[in-house]
Give the backbone structure.
Amino acid sequence: MLILNAGRSDAQSRRQEMPILHAGRSDAQSRRQEMPILHAGRSDAQSRPKISQPPHGSALRKGRHSIPNQIYLVTTVTQNRLPVFADFHSARILVKVLKTEHQLHRAETLAFVVMPDHLHWLMQLGSVRVLSRVVQSVKAASAQKIGKPIWQAGYHDHALRREEDLPAVARYLVANPLRAGLVSRIGDYPHWDATWL
């Protein structure tokens, strides 16, 4: 049985709606399950159900607030997770950029660890810039000094409450190289710091 669409010839409808037969099914079963039903006056695209697309990066940032003097844990990754910071010189450039943000009173670094393909940064935002601009500044300055685009767009941030145990958060953060198996003692990893440790 063929369902014809208004405005199409019998031959056009047969060509476009030829049923696909599956092994182990009778012709009747295959036709019932595979035959598209097209509605009169609608194109195939209009007949298909709408599939929601994942939100664009800017949509994910809607509702994000930047609060002066708030403590944030920021994580940002390199493009395609390339291990840019496995290079000692590149990692030290990023560390210097973090110190510059501190000197400019944009953010006070409480703890950080530079992993081969990402950065974890525990910081207290200053009152000069919003969080997104501070992160953008760190990423732009480090990429410019390294001499090539290195960062994936966007970042993840988590605002910490004052009552959270910040030294425990910092210890967990700087232990990343241990958990990743990069070193057997945290003291052997050169690209981290914490005000409490």
